Amino acid sequence: MTHNRLVISTTVSLDNNTFTIYNEVLLVMDSNLFNHLNDLANPRVERTKRYPLLEILLLVVSVTISGCDGWKSGKDFGDLKLARLRNFLPYADGIPIDDTIARVMRRLDTKQFQQCFMSCMHSISKVTEGEVVSFDG
Fold first, then answer.
1. pLDDT of residue 21
2. How many Å apart are CA 60 and CA 2, to the nearest integer?
3. Is the CB of residue 11 less than 8 Å from the CB of residue 94?
């Protein structure tokens, strides 16, 4: 079975000690998140589609798993991890500003997003034959 892995790290300082926390997002090639999210309706009008929806969604899933708090920290995370994110999608225009991320997520059909995400999780469960897949490190 072929896997792509996106390893996300967060550096935390505590009492003059620095720790790096690694979270790993497992993207299974035959049943990956992108295939399932492609079915998600894009809520934007054509003129406001500078950043592809899949790029915004990969960023949002990554920052959520990494524990970022808010769209501004998500934007900062994306800027820091842009090279790594580009292993999966082009991000030709870089990372969108926090207002753009928030606007897209606010307009997204959350029920449809949940269905797409759950479909991906069920598919991964089948491919991994029920093996536990940790998304939060």
1. 46
2. 24
3. no
Q: Specify the pLDDT at position 134.
A: 63
Token pair listed for 119 = 């479909």
**Token pair of 83 as six digits:** 């090279």
Predicted pLDDT at 38: 86
On the 0-12 / 13-18 / 19+ scale of CB atoms within 10 A, 8 is buried
Instruction: Give pLDDT, residue 96.
Output: 97
Q: Which of 52, 42, 55, 25 is nearest to 121 (CA)?
A: 25
Domain boundaries, the chain: 3-127
CB atoms within 10 A of CB 54: 17
Phi, psi torsion values for 77, nearest 5 degrees = -60, -50
φ, ψ at 13 (rounded to 5°): -105, 135
For the chain (137 residues), the mean pLDDT of every run of 10, in chain order, is 48 50 44 78 89 93 86 94 90 97 95 89 76 62
Cβ atoms of 36 and 58 within 8 Å: the answer is no
Handedness of CA 47, 82, 78, 136 (dihedral sign): positive
Rg of the Cα trace of the chain? 15
